[in-house]
Amino acid sequence: MIHAAGSPSQVMTVRTAPGLRSLMPIYEGNYQSLARLVPGLRSMQAPASFVLSDLPRIRMSVVECCRYTALLAFSHSLTPGAGPVPDLALKVRMCHDARVAEVIGYQGRSRFAAVYPYPNRDMHAVFEKRQVNLFLGEWLRFCRPGGRRARLAAGEESGSPS
User: Fold this and answer.
1) pLDDT of residue 5 exceeding 50
2) Measured between alpha carbons, how far is 126 from 119 in angstroms, rounded to an integer?
3) Percent of the chain at pLDDT above 70?
4) 87 or 27, greater pLDDT
5) Which alpha helices (DSSP H) does the chain contain, by range?
6) CA–CA separation, 128 vs 61, rounded Å?
7) CA-CA distances (angstroms) from residue 49 to 16, 60, 66, 87, 148?
8) Distances from the Cα of 70 to the Cαs of 45, 89, 95, 110, in angstroms?
9) 41 vs 149, higher pLDDT
10) Do residues 76 and 57 lie in contact, with contact meaning Cβ atoms separated by under 8 Å?
């Protein structure tokens, strides 16, 4: 049981904190969705950029490719150029051997705690880590209607082995 600091009227008690057991199925689902959306991602040897959706514009960049892991950066813009709604940014670490994908950065923030007390100074959601990973899963499902696959962004070379 977790208690937030504050006066008794401001304290929220969280009885069930999501642990690794409840997060792993989300991470595994995100990995499977990415593998279906971008076939060959595991075998990439060089960074590359992909367009996942044209409207809204969703791009995925493979920032780092290693034998067992990959670092992906996602961006989502609703309007061309600077608009009233800021672009969305996610960083995702894929672990190929464990077959999981976890959000490690969201809108410039990283190192999410599994549970935050509420209220808190930074206004994090109580289960923010879980929520950003669920959001990634929803986003990936949005990008793949009817079995659509990502396409290499214009001007990019394939990062796959020849």
Assistant:
1) no
2) 8
3) 77
4) 27
5) 20-37, 128-143
6) 24
7) 39, 6, 16, 17, 17
8) 10, 17, 7, 17
9) 41
10) yes
